[in-house]
Design goal:
The chain is α/β, with parallel strands linked by helices and 466 residues long. The chain is 37% helix and 21% strand. The longest helix has 18 residues.
Length: 466
């Protein structure tokens, strides 16, 4: 199996910076702010043809005991999963009491541990690493993660301690994998839902808004289907976003939407649907992602409350009539079982190939049943259709005067295609293309009759010549 390498250490020693360099991404938030990474984050990388998975973990400071206890559990989970551990320390801070505590814990493990001294740029390397020998877990390796200095040599040293990895595994790992982003306001139960879906405590579930500050990517399988769940930070209104860190988290949540095939938007049944909810849903729709709604905290509500919420959904979210709705309790597991069925249906609808003959046939039947309107005395002509893209499905319709097609008729065509193609959980986009002008490029005063005459003259001349 492809080896898993966990990055552990105190806050602000550069774990996320190293993670980004190793995976050639900017998937982990990086800022000069202790405690930014709270959950495990997975990424893939290669060095010298060898593939690996690297796990970024939260730093432990001891300042907030409740949060730190949960973060410590996440770090221990990552260490348990890992084949090797990289303990990162800060060259400029020197050896600290927390470094000693982590070293004692890691020394008890039956796993390779590599001590990495980060931030050696601009300092004397020999002097910077000399103090860290006292930790007693091998020779310290000096790196500058921000610039990539020494990182390749470090990874080669880490991987040399492990069995050879199959570099093809990393490529296979992403094939046929459905990416599902979990989106919603803070404290609606996203992390609890993720933990329930995968059946373990993979992300923090703590009754405090904003516990998840980053987007956490979690690969797993269910019933033979490979998934990646993306647990996003709760997104507040812009006026509520004060810290730069929280702004980063919003960006990461929106980037997760870009990467996802399907988005599950979690709503709180005990709160009214807000303008912010509608804005988030609108953004998902604007990006063209397949979508389903999970109305959480459904248990314990009276029937009158449930009917009121369903009515509110119908009234405020009419633009999402294509999305499946699930009324669930992430905490107790009620209604969770059918979420994956909807995810798979939405994914299939969003990514399937649509044959041109079938699309054209649907278009022609739609026109027969309901003719396009007249524009300046001439009727809009819709001739044929073909697929222009997937996720979301894009249907390109060719014809004459199509740019004058009213929005109401466009919606009619969208609904017709969705119904005939049995597309569920995904928006459908229609693009119109004007047909080619058969007289383009001819002289202004020429006519079709002139064109035929010129062609006949050309053929007669050729026949006489032969």
């Amino acid at each position: 199996m492809i080896p898993v390498i966990a990055l552990v250490g105190r806050p602000n020693v550069g774990k996320s910076t190293l993670f980004n360099y190793l995976t050639k991404t900017r998937d982990a938030l990086v800022a000069d702010y202790p405690g930014l990474t709270r959950d495990r984050k997975y990424g893939q990388g290669k060095v010298g043809g060898l593939a690996y998975l690297v796990v970024d973990t939260g730093g432990l400071s001891g300042e907030n005991l409740e949060i730190d206890e949960l973060m410590a559990k996440q770090t221990r989970f990552a260490i348990d999963e890992a084949d090797a551990v990289v303990l990162m320390v800060d060259a400029r801070a020197g050896v600290t009491a927390h470094d000693h505590i982590l070293t004692r814990e890691l020394r008890q493990l039956q796993k390779p541990v590599t001590l990495v001294v980060n931030k050696v740029d601009g300092v004397d390397v020999d002097t910077a690493i000399s103090d860290f020998y006292e930790l007693g877990i091998g020779e310290p390796l000096a790196i500058a993660a921000a610039r990539g200095r020494g990182v390749t040599q470090m990874m080669q040293a880490v991987l040399e301690k492990l069995p050879a990895a199959d570099e093809k595994i990393a490529d296979r790992d992403t094939e046929d994998r459905i990416k599902v982003a979990i989106l919603g306001r803070p404290n609606v139960g996203k992390s609890t839902l993720v933990n329930r879906l995968i059946g373990e405590q993979r992300v923090l579930a703590y009754d405090l808004p904003g516990t998840t500050r980053d987007s956490i990517y979690i690969p797993f399988e269910k019933n033979g289907q490979a998934y990646t769940l993306i647990d996003t930070a709760g997104v507040r209104r812009r006026s509520k976003v004060h810290e730069a860190i929280e702004k980063f988290s919003v960006i990461k949540a929106l980037q997760a939407i870009e990467e996802a095939h399907v988005v599950i938007v979690v709503l709180d049944a005990q709160l009214e649907i807000s303008d912010q909810d509608a804005t988030l849903l609108g953004f998902v729709l604007d990006r063209g992602r397949a979508l389903l709604l999970a109305v959480n905290k459904w248990d314990g509500l009276h029937e009158e409350q449930k009917e009121k919420i369903k009515h509110e959904l119908d009234y405020k979210l009419t633009f999402l009539d294509f999305a499946d709705r699930h009324f669930i309790s992430a905490l107790h597991g009620t209604g969770i079982g059918h979420l994956f069925d909807s995810v798979k249906k939405a994914y299939h609808s969003a990514t399937q190939r649509l044959p041109t003959p079938k699309l054209t046939e649907i278009l022609q039947r739609a026109v027969e049943e309901h003719q396009p309107p007249m524009v300046k005395g001439r009727r809009i002509k819709l001739r044929y259709a073909h697929q222009g893209g997937r996720n979301p499905p894009i249907i390109v319709i060719h014809g004459n005067q199509v740019k004058s097609t009213p929005e109401a008729y466009r919606r009619y065509l969208i609904n017709t295609f969705r119904k005939r193609l049995k597309l569920v959980g995904t928006p459908v986009r229609i693009e119109f293309k004007e047909g080619n002008n058969p007289y383009a490029g001819r002289k202004p005063n020429s006519t079709p009759r002139d064109a035929r005459k010129n062609n006949n003259q050309g053929r007669n001349y050729t026949n006489k010549k032969h």
